[in-house]
Write a structure and sequence with these properties.
- The complex is a heterodimer of chains A (242) and B (561).
- Chain A has helices at 17-34, 37-53, 58-83, 88-115, 120-127, 132-161, 173-204, 222-241.
- Chain A is mainly α.
- Chain A has two domains: 17-123 and 219-241, no CATH class; 130-204, no CATH class.
- In chain A, helix 3 runs antiparallel to helix 4 (88-115) and helix 5 packs antiparallel against helix 6.
- In chain B, a hairpin with a 2-residue loop joins strand 15 (349-354) and strand 16 (357-358).
- Helix content of chain B is 37%, strand content 23%.
- Chain B is built from 23 helices and 22 strands.
- In chain B, helix 15 (387-397) packs across helix 16 (403-413) and helix 15 (387-397) packs parallel to helix 17.
- Chain B has three domains: 3-243, 3-Layer(aba) Sandwich (Rossmann fold); 244-286 and 529-561, no CATH class; 293-528, Rossmann fold, CATH 3.40.50.
- The chains are: A mainly alpha (242), B alpha/beta (561).
Chain lengths: 242, 561
């Protein structure tokens, strides 16, 4: 998620974490499974408006989603062409429409990741009065992951530089298994070290999982209410439609 | 002295870690007055870190056996919770990266008051004030990963100050920093001292801090060996025996012995004010004559997948049998260049030649026979169950004949054969470093790349590593030394390549390089004070060893001001 986030100053970026998260949870199933075609087109238009407001570079967005979107269009359309019982044109439309629904699902997810700074997740948990130890744990996980992955990379590089071949193939598998096991020693050692050091930092900052800490204010702005209203309206539309 | 004037007092303090029979600290009695810049020094593993952790109350978290007492401004730390102590005494650790647990600078600095339950607005105001004072407004929303080690250490310091503590403990805070960042942090600490804070810093590099320190305590094997003013400790025999004196003090002592210096000085700056040097005298050596190129980078460029420039248009010849130092501030491209030589990274442009053979497309394992690499952190390399198994790993991977025999020969050469059946973890810090060198040497490579080998080593162990490096050079090995220890490069390296922003700005003899302070300033490297002496001693010549440098200098000093 950290790799997806794009720092921008936009109304969408500034929305409350819970607004973004709840609307994502509502919009994803509605657009993919529940919305009739007309409503689905409204959701597509709404998604495009959101993307434009977010000021995210369209090429960057395309680059982040193309690896999922292109195979989805090809495979679902092909499946519809091969196995649907309609005339050819309808099969094609059916395939394209279904693949667009999945694409929109992915696009909402990617947009959420691009406009949500990872810090908003633990902070959001704190704001929602979820016990702070869970929020802090999530934050530390976000912080530790890049440190550990860098350390693992260094350890693998160190072994490769000593002549160890770590490329996976059927031929090298018997040789690789003990080598990977031996890699676990410095990796575990480093991971433990990092977690002890981060935990020492927490203690030195005066953190106690059982004490009360200051909770950041949870504010909702006009944009948050507008998005909630729109998502609510969609739900009502679907309920009436059904 | 009134109780409130004593910031920290250790009374018969002893400590033993849980499940450990040996006491790491034994009956320490120490009084540190308010407002001092106090240095704790001693060899690696002497108990400096434990003393600081104990003073911050960490024994309450770790458990273990704590006897005696520690008082902060007259109150026993036993009366406070570990969280409460945070508002009185703050601690900064060695590794800047793991001291930041939040995802943005502002959140990191706000975290302490938040954890102490202060109102939200006060937490914010405190953080903003400290950022504006110590850092810059641009830092507010930056992620720890975007910061250099020096910046991370400043953020850790700022986060500590947000607790408004009176005493600051710093555990080897400069280990990961380049000289420029070290200087910046030292200046911040000096400012804090002037504001009345008590600074207690542990280090084994006295040369860089002696000018700032009011008093020094020397610790060895968990015992307080001596305590006194900076001058008293720097000139003590205990320091000389346990840790070795800084070079400036060795020179001053030699001058005092020859009656060319009357007063004791504490660093190069002081010394330079007291002496005048007669030019061009003494025993110095000329530059090495260059032999043929062994490793050649031809217009190499590399950009990381995230778009960060690693190195750009690097062309560099490394000559057979030389020691080439590579220096530069953090993230200047030094390690990237090493990884390109090893094949761990593939250049976007350019070619790499080893003994005139193009190795650009050669795999990592093929290159491992010819180029060896010792990482900065020994723990990244060590994983074997025994020292022998560890050392034989490379020859086994490279399918060399009789790997165990090769490993034994190499271990013997580096004095480690007596530990062959022991676990690598049972070795001391210096021995682990030696073992990593043995791990590489056993493959008999043409070129040996050492990435910051001085990291975490005290001066005494570093001298041992320097001897090994010199011995390897005598045997005809070519060595590339990536380092932050500029002083050592003078005595050790035949040439020094200076890297900045992924480029090589210069590759020449150390004395020729260092005598241009404006160039060094431009690339954020410090101009070493004792280079002024070298410059006066001889043109384009470099000293063979510390001893010869001292002898040559004492002969050349003419006037005592």
């Amino acid at each position: 998620m950290k790799d997806f986030y794009i720092e921008k100053t936009s109304i969408i970026h500034n929305l409350n974490f819970w607004t973004k998260f709840i609307c994502l949870l509502l919009l994803m199933p509605i657009s993919t499974f529940l919305a009739p075609t007309k409503l689905f087109l409204v959701i597509v238009a709404f998604f495009i408006v959101l993307l434009l407001i977010s000021k995210i570079n369209l090429k960057k967005f395309w680059d982040a989603t193309k690896f999922y979107n292109v195979p989805i269009i090809i495979s679902i359309t092909l499946l519809a062409l091969l196995f649907s019982h309609n005339i050819l044109l309808n099969r094609l439309i059916e395939g394209l429409l279904l693949s667009t629904r999945f694409i929109i699902l992915i696009c909402f997810g990617v947009l959420f990741a691009m406009i949500t700074n990872p810090i908003e997740i633990p902070t959001g948990m704190l704001k929602a009065k979820i016990p702070h130890k869970y929020g802090i744990t999530v934050m530390i996980a976000f912080r530790m992951l890049p440190l550990i992955s860098q350390k693992i990379k260094n350890i693998i590089d160190a072994q490769r530089a000593r002549g160890a071949k770590l490329k996976l193939s059927i031929r090298t598998l018997p040789e690789l298994i003990p080598r990977f096991i031996s890699l676990m020693v410095p990796i575990l050692h480093s991971t433990l070290n990092i977690s002890v050091e981060i935990s020492d930092t927490l203690i030195s900052r005066g953190y106690n999982p059982d004490s009360r800490i200051t909770i950041p204010p949870n504010k909702f702005k006009t944009g948050d209410y507008a998005l909630f209203l729109f998502s609510g309206a969609l739900l009502v539309w679907i309920s009436i439609g059904f | 002295m009134p109780i409130m004037d004593i910031a920290l007092e250790l009374k018969e303090a002893s400590y033993r870690y849980p499940d450990n029979e040996k006491y790491v600290l034994k009956d320490i009695n120490l009084k540190i007055s308010r407002g001092l810049f106090y240095i704790l020094t001693g060899p690696t593993g002497s108990g400096k870190t434990t003393l600081l952790m104990l003073s911050r109350g960490f024994y309450k978290e770790y458990g273990g056996d704590f006897n005696g007492d520690i008082h902060i401004f007259g109150q026993s730390i036993k009366n406070f919770d570990i969280e409460e102590l945070g508002s009185k005494i703050g601690i900064i650790f060695q590794n800047p990266a793991t001291q930041l647990h939040q995802l943005r600078v502002i959140d990191e600095i706000m975290s302490s008051p938040i954890y102490q339950g202060f109102p939200w607005n006060e937490c914010k105001t405190r953080a903003e004030t400290i950022i504006n004072e110590l850092l810059d407004k641009n830092f507010y929303y930056r992620a720890p990963g975007e910061l250099s080690s020096g910046e991370q250490q400043k953020v850790a310091l700022a986060a500590c100050l947000a607790m408004e503590c009176e005493i600051l403990l710093l555990d080897e805070p400069f280990s990961f920093l380049d000289a420029k960042s070290t200087k910046e942090i030292l200046n911040i600490l000096l400012k804090l001292k002037k504001e009345g804070k008590t600074i207690i810093l542990s280090t084994h590099n006295l040369e860089e801090v002696s000018g700032y320190a009011d008093r020094i305590a020397l610790i060895n094997s968990g015992k307080l060996i001596s305590e006194g003013t900076t001058e008293e400790i720097l000139y003590s025999n205990e320091l000389k025996e346990i840790l070795t004196s800084p070079l400036s003090i060795k020179v001053a002592k030699a001058l005092i012995r020859k009656r060319k210096l009357e007063e004791k000085v504490v660093n190069w700056q002081n010394l330079l004010k007291k002496i005048k040097i007669k030019a061009k005298n003494g025993e110095m050596i000329e530059n090495n004559t260059k032999q043929g190129s062994i490793l050649k980078f031809d217009n190499i460029s590399y950009t990381y997948p995230d778009g960060t420039k690693g190195v750009e248009n690097i062309s560099l010849d490394i000559y057979k049998g030389e020691i080439l130092g590579i220096i530069g501030i953090n993230a200047s491209g030094k390690t990237t260049l090493a990884k390109l030589a090893l094949g761990l990274l593939k250049p976007n442009k350019g070619r790499i030649y080893l003994l005139d053979e193009d190795i650009t497309k050669l795999g990592v394992s093929e290159r491992a026979k010819k180029i060896g690499y010792v990482t900065q952190d020994p723990m990244e390399m060590l994983f074997g169950d025994t020292v022998l198994e560890e050392c034989a790993f490379g020859p086994k991977c490279l399918k060399l004949e009789n790997p165990e025999q090769l490993a034994k020969e190499t271990l013997n050469k580096l004095g480690l054969l007596r530990y062959e059946k022991g676990h690598p973890d049972s070795l001391s810090g210096g021995e682990k470093r030696l073992l990593t060198i043995a791990d590489i040497l056993v493959n008999n490579p043409h070129v040996l790349i050492l990435d910051e080998p001085e990291f975490g080593l005290d001066p005494k162990i570093w001298r041992l590593i320097v001897c090994i490096i010199k011995k390897l050079k005598k045997e005809g090995k070519t060595i590339i030394l990536i380092t932050h220890n500029l002083e050592s490069t003078i005595f050790l390296c035949d040439r020094i390549a200076v890297m900045n922003k992924g480029r090589i700005l210069s590759a020449k003899d150390p004395t020729r390089l260092y005598k241009d302070p404006r160039f060094l300033q431009k690339i954020n490297l410090p101009s070493l004070p004792f280079l002024k002496i070298l410059k006066a001693l001889g043109k384009n010549k470099k000293p063979l060893s510390e001893e010869k440098f001292i002898a040559s200098l004492t002969d050349s000093v003419e006037v005592i001001k």
